[in-house]
Amino acid sequence: MKQSNPDALQTSKTYVLLHGAWHGGWCWREVAAALRQAGHQVYTPTQTGLGERSHLLSKDITLDVFIDDLKNVLTWEDLNDVVLVGHSFGGIVISAVADQMPERIRHLVYLDSLILQNGQSAFSVISADVADERRALSQASSGGVSIPIPTPEAMGVSEPSQAAWLMSKCTPHPIATYESVLTLNNPVGNGLPATYVAVVPEYGPTTSSRTFAKTQKDWRYLEMDAGHDAMLTSPDAVIRLLLSI
What we know:
Elements: H1 6-11, E1 14-18, H2 29-37, E2 41-43, H3 63-76, E3 82-87, H4 90-100, E4 105-111, H5 122-125, H6 128-142, E5 146-147, H7 160-169, E6 173-174, H8 176-179, E7 194-200, H9 207-214, E8 220-225, H10 230-233, H11 235-244
Helix pairs in contact: 2-11, 3-4
C-alpha cells in the first residue's frame, strides 16, 4: 500500500477560484492544473447562467443566486480553510460569502476585482456611461435579460489564439446581477486576511475598487503586469501568487 506523505498533507491547500462576468470555471484551466500538480485541492465553480450552465440563463438570476451558488459549493463539498479567489465580478460574490461563512475561509484574494460595500450594486460603482451602455446593449440583444460579450481587447486579451479561445467560451451575462444590491452585515472582507491584486495597465471598471483596497490597512495590495483576464494572459504570475498565500 502506498504510504501518504504527512508533509504534503500539512502543506496542501484548498483553493476555490471564482470567475468573473461572461466567464465560467473554464477560464481557470491552466491555473487550476498547476495548483493541482503542486498537490492542492482546486474547485472552479461556474455561476448559474454562464459557461456550461448557460442554458439556465434568465432574468431572475440575481446577485443572491450567485452568492448561493458559491455558498453551496463550500457546504456540499465540505470545504474549510479555503483560499477563496474572486476575479473581476467574482470579487463581489466572495465578499458576500466572507460575510456569511467566514469560518470556512483562510484567505480572500481579489484578482482585479469589483468590490462593493453594503447597499451598492455593480452598476453603482462603474462609470455611469459604461452602465448606461451595458443596459442599452442588454435591451437590444436580449430584451434586458443579459449583457452581451465584450471584445477580447476590452478584457485585456490581445494575443490572437487566446482571444479566439476566449470568445469561443464566453457567454452573455445575466444583467440582474449588475442591478442587484449587495447586503453585508460586516465590513468588506469581514476581518479575514485579504490580498487585492490590480493589473497594470489599469482596467477601468475596477478603478474605484482598487482605490478602496489601497485604504484597507490590514489588506495586502499588489500590482501585476497582466491583462484584466490575468489567468489567461499571465497564468504563471497568478499561479506564483496563489502558491505564495
